[in-house]
Amino acid sequence: MTLSKILVPVAGLALLVIGWRSYGLAGVVGVAGGIMMFLLLHFTRTMTVLRRAGNRPMGYVDSAVMFNAKLKPRMTLLHVIAMTRSIGAAQTPEGIQPEVFRWTDNGDSYVDATFLEGKLQEWKLTRPAQVEDDVAVAPVPAEATVAVTGVAPDPR
């Protein structure tokens, strides 16, 4: 359990006590309104991210290489979903820690991201093997250039 899971509620209670001691019931109502506003903003952001992610294919990212470059340790899963605008394809069974999610692009490159309790621990970019074309490109004759482009080649 992280320290922030304890400190945030304790800080909220401390603010309520300070509001009570400073302004009485009006202080408690003001602090409670501020806390409620914070919770509603967080809830709205979460729903917006998930709505955008729901409109795209699961596990899809525009560019796996660029996505890999933007990742940083300890990022939250919600932040990663907001970056990709896609929910990652789960690679591990549900409820098993650490969780591994995969995001793939059109070029079959993919990033496997490992999350421990919702925080990014490690990630790995995998790119497909490059196939070399052994077919040599033959030079195009001048007549073909005229036929394709409609412009005669420069005789110089």
Layout of helices and strands:
Layout: H1 4-23, H2 25-54, H3 64-70, H4 77-84, E1 89-90, E2 99-104, E3 110-116, E4 119-126, H5 142-149
Antiparallel strand pairs: 1-2, 2-3, 3-4
Helix pairs in contact: 1-2, 2-4
Distance between the termini: 77 Å
Any idea of the CATH topology of the largest domain?
A: Beta-lactamase Inhibitory Protein, Chain:B, domain 1
Radius of gyration: 27 Å
In CATH's first tier, which class of the largest domain applies?
A: Alpha Beta
Largest sheet: 4 strands, antiparallel
Spatially, the strands of the biggest sheet line up as 1-2-3-4
Low-confidence sequence ranges = 144-153
Please provide the count of β strands.
4
State the share of residues found in helices, binned by percent: 40-55%
Summarize the structure.
This protein has 156 residues and is α+β, with helices and mostly antiparallel strands. It is built from five helices and four strands.
Description of the molecule:
This protein has 156 residues and is α+β, with helices and mostly antiparallel strands. It folds into 2 domains: 4-54, no CATH class; 64-126, Beta-lactamase Inhibitory Protein, Chain:B, domain 1. The chain contains 5 helices and 4 strands. It has helices at residues 4-23, 25-54, 64-70, 77-84, 142-149, and strands at residues 89-90, 99-104, 110-116, 119-126. It has a 4-stranded antiparallel sheet with strand order 1-2-3-4, with helices on one face. Helix 1 runs antiparallel to helix 2 (25-54) and helix 2 crosses helix 4. The longest helix has 30 residues, at 25-54.
